[in-house]
Amino acid sequence: TTESEERNASLRDKEIENRVKILRTVKLFSSLQISEIKQIAMALHVAIFTKSDVMTKQGDVAHWLYVIVSGEADVWYEVNSNERNHLATFHAGDVFGEMGLMTGEPRLATVTARIDTECYRIDKNTFESIMIARPELANEFAHLIDERQAALKSVKLEESAQGQNRQATILTNIRRFFHLPRKDGG
Asked: What is the pLDDT of residue 39?
């Protein structure tokens, strides 16, 4: 029994060390102190996703973020139930879901597992004491959130322009098909 308890404690310690090592490579956590990273490492949850699993769904509210440990995930902006646009692919060390953790706002995009993917999930409660002790970290999160929102806005603007171009093409085809004069009299 003592041997089993020692073994389990040793395995737990090694797992925490491994988590700390991984978290230290995440850019978002680069300014955290080792004690803060260890605090997160001890409280995080492992989340396993298989290829094509929905990891987060656009519009859902959640209060956690994910760190990809291994695998890849695709980020999608869903225009409607039948159409979605690919925004990015995340790899090991990338973080997503920071909006849910930091603001409680609904997800801005859907994230799916491109291949089997292992993540660490960090909830608000785990991160709250760190944020209270070091509120300057909010600036880093705000910067990341701003970058991601700008990328999403760019996709939406591009979509809008494409929609207008599609509409113009359809109008031209209708006018041509029915031999209607063009708007400019041609």
From this structure: 93
